[in-house]
Amino acid sequence: MDKDKVAHLLAEAHRNVEPTIVRIVRVTASDETESNEPVKLLEVNPATSPSGILPIAFSSDPPTVPYPSIVIEVTQDEFDQIDSGALPLPKGWRLGETLYPAA
Questions:
Q1: What is the Cα–Cα distance from 87 to 19, expressed in whole angstroms?
Q2: Cβ burial, residue 38 (10 Å; 0-12/13-18/19+)
Q3: Which strands, in side-by-side order, build the sheet including 69-74?
Q4: Under a CB-based contact definition with an 8 Å cutoff, are residues 57 and 68 in contact?
Q5: Tens place of pLDDT for every residue, the chain, 103 residues?
Q6: Residue 11 dihedral angles phi and psi, to the nearest 5°
Q7: pTM, two decimal places
Q8: Which of 25, 72, 74, 21 is nearest to 49 (CA)?
């Protein structure tokens, strides 16, 4: 399973578990094609407390999730700051495809 499919699978699972999530955006890095590079999701959740960029790492769970993953949960205000560049993601990371709500 490729990383795009895993990202969509994780986004759907997280949304089903946490219904207060209003947006999930994939975060990518320049070395995204490397097998050890985690699938990274930025989750916008109004029910969370503002804490800045605090990545939480998870190990892989083969065969369904063959890659490690990272989740960054932020408030809407923090997302707006990330989107405008006022709150930077870790070096080399950038916002990618919006996985939820689906386009």
A1: 25
A2: buried
A3: 56-58, 69-74, 39-44, 23-29, 93-100
A4: yes
A5: 899 999 999 999 999 999 999 999 999 998 888 888 999 999 999 999 999 999 999 999 998 899 999 999 999 999 999 999 999 999 999 999 999 996 5
A6: -60, -45
A7: 0.94
A8: 74
